């Protein structure tokens, strides 16, 4: 059998799972019931199948966080990571085209197992058995789709109508149906020959490239041009590809279904028999958890009095719910969601309104991940902001300057190496330093434990965009 290379597509902001999912901390990083993240789960499912690296297509802004998630995933120790870092999202057809081109340099015409990063499949054994069967079918040159047997008249999924069964396995595909209304979805469920379109695929690299050449030549042509200009690097056994942003905009924004699958003739559908969820709403999250006798599901500290069929999720604070029914209550340090379960799909409208008004809660959490560590906004006012900053061992921030604010740093634990203009000195726990406005400065952690400090910003503007970078080891200088 050909070498299998898992290709994980990790994009999308998951707006229906706000306020936990944000633009800067999207759905694949969400952890269900404080367990592994969705991204870590799919890596663990796919890694045992890999005959080479695990390829992961994501936005370059998430590259450092994705690498962390990969390294802490179960089963990832035996495989390497190959990141394809996009400067912007251009949908699944360009992402798969770039992955197929990159895979040509990894193995001789490998089989690509394409998996979204934000799906939940609890039975990993059943999944891997289905994936190996899909790889067997794909070896003949067919493009294999995974179909999920519907369990309810779900209007939030696309459907596929099955044709005749193949003697070698799988089914022919008669047609694709966009998300139907509930009435049509009910008809599909009763008919028995319709499945949910899971968004998972399996095909040889040569097969998908040939199909794109036939049905979406503009996608393949643009992908080849973009790939030819890519920058490649290899660090600690992991590979990475980055693209020129200007060239990347030439890629058509189109899905693989619309570009190829709805037109190709060599399509075969494998009906999967494992439980599957795309975790597309908080209602779907609640359905994955064990409920109490009143139908309530809870994550975090909570107190219920006369509550029924309600989902509570807390990030550190106690939530008390009294006499409520059929609600979703999700608490984060800077935002709280309260919604009727039946309106869970409308949460995306909250995010749209926040973005329209420029509210930062649409995109970032109070705690923001950075390549060097993280910062948490503790308090902010008109001319000041107070943060807790955590710098991981051996990491350092960019050499930078601010036009509108000064900064006071107080070290709580660890050791700080501070550069201020031409001077460099060490700052230890219970010591502090001052960075005046307009001063070139850098913060580093030369130690073996986390550096934790409090930063107090003062000035006429304390926005995150008041920063000029002169040097940065993470490539954030133009």
What does this protein look like?
The strands form 6 sheets. Strands 1, 2, 3, 4, 5, 6, 7, 8, 9, 10 and 11 form an 11-stranded mixed beta sheet that branches. The protein has helices at residues 38-46, 63-71, 92-103, 124-138, 182-191, 205-215, 217-228, 245-248, 256-261, 282-287, 347-356; strands spanning 4-10, 54-59, 81-86, 111-116, 143-148, 159-165, 171-177, 194-204, 231-235, 238-242, 267-272, 297-299, 302-305, 311-314, 319-322, 327-332, 335-340, 367-370, 373-380, 384-391, 399-401, 405-413, 416-420, 423-427, 432-435, 441-444, 451-459, 468-471. The two termini are 45 Å apart. Helix 3 (92-103) packs across helix 6 (205-215) and helix 6 crosses helix 7 (217-228). By secondary structure, the chain is of the alpha/beta class.
Q: Which class do the helix and strand fractions yield?
A: alpha/beta
Shape: globular
Helix content: 10-25%
Q: Using only CA atoms, what is the Rg?
A: 24 Å
The average pLDDT is 94
DSSP, total strands:
28
| SS summary, helix count | 11
The largest sheet, given as strand count, sense and whether it forms a barrel, is: 11 strands, mixed
Looking at how many chains there are and whether they match, the oligomeric state comes to: single chain
Relative strand content: 25-35%
Name the poorly predicted regions.
none
For the terminal residues, how far apart are their CA atoms? Answer: 45 Å
């Amino acid at each position: 059998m050909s070498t299998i290379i898992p290709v994980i597509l990790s994009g999308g902001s998951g707006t229906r799972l706000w306020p936990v999912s944000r633009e800067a901390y999207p759905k694949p990083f969400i952890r269900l019931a404080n367990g592994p993240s969705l991204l870590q789960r799919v890596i663990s499912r796919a890694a045992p199948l890999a005959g080479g690296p695990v390829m992961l297509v994501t936005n370059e802004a998430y590259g450092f966080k994705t690498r962390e998630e990969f390294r802490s995933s179960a089963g990832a120790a035996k495989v390497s990571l190959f990141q394809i870092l996009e400067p912007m999202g251009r949908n699944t057809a360009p992402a798969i085209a770039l992955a197929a081109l990159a895979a040509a340099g990894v193995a001789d015409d490998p089989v690509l197992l394409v998996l979204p990063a934000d799906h939940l499949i609890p039975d990993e054994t059943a999944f891997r058995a289905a994936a190996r069967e899909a790889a067997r079918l794909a070896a003949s040159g067919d493009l294999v789709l995974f179909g999920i047997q519907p369990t309810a008249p779900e209007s939030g999924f696309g459907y596929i109508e099955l044709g005749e069964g193949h003697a070698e396995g799988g089914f022919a595909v008669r047609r694709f149906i966009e998300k139907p209304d509930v009435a049509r979805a009910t008809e599909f469920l009763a008919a028995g020959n319709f499945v949910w379109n899971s968004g998972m695929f399996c095909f040889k690299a040569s097969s998908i490239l040939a199909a794109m050449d036939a049905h979406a030549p503009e996608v393949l042509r643009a992908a080849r041009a973009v790939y030819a200009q890519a920058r490649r690097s290899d660090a600690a056994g992991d590979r990475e590809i980055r693209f020129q942003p200007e060239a990347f905009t030439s890629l058509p924004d189109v899905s693989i279904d619309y570009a190829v699958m709805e037109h190709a003739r060599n399509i075969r559908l494998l009906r999967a028999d494992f439980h599957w969820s795309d975790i597309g709403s908080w209602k779907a999250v609640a359905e994955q958890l064990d409920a109490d006798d009143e139908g309530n599901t809870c994550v975090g500290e909570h107190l219920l009095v006369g509550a029924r069929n309600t989902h509570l999720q807390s990030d550190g604070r106690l939530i008390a719910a009294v006499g409520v029914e059929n609600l979703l209550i999700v608490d984060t340090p800077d935002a709280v969601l309260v919604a009727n379960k039946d309106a869970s799909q409308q949460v995306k409208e909250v995010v749209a309104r926040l973005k329209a008004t420029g509210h930062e809660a649409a995109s970032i959490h109070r705690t923001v991940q950075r390549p060097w560590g993280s910062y948490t906004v503790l308090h902010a006012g008109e001319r000041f902001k107070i943060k807790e900053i955590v710098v991981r061992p051996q990491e350092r921030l960019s050499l930078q300057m601010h036009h509108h604010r000064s900064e006071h740093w107080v070290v709580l634990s660890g050791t700080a190496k501070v550069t201020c203009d031409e001077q460099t000195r060490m700052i230890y726990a219970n010591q502090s330093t001052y960075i005046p406005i307009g001063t070139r400065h850098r913060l580093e952690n030369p130690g073996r434990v986390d550096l934790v400090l409090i930063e107090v910003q003062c000035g006429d503007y304390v926005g995150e965009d008041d920063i000029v970078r002169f040097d940065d080891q993470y490539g954030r200088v133009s």
